[in-house]
Amino acid sequence: MCTINKGEEVRFDYATTETVLTQDLAQTPCLCGSSNCRLFVKSYSDLSTLEKEQLKNAGLLANHIF
After folding, report:
1. Among 8, 26, 30, 55, which residue's beta carbon has the most beta carbons within 10 A?
2. Across 12-20, average pLDDT
């Protein structure tokens, strides 16, 4: 957790909280700029087994995901 300052950009990984996305959101290009960006917004269900394990091992998944 951290303080978010006014005007600060917020980045959010939908794959850590959403198992299914609306069709419109699933088609959204990601603009996070990360070197390991997935290029499009994805849900947990859209991830590879390796990506799912990495999020789980990092403790980044919402409790309802697993």
Report:
1. 55
2. 95
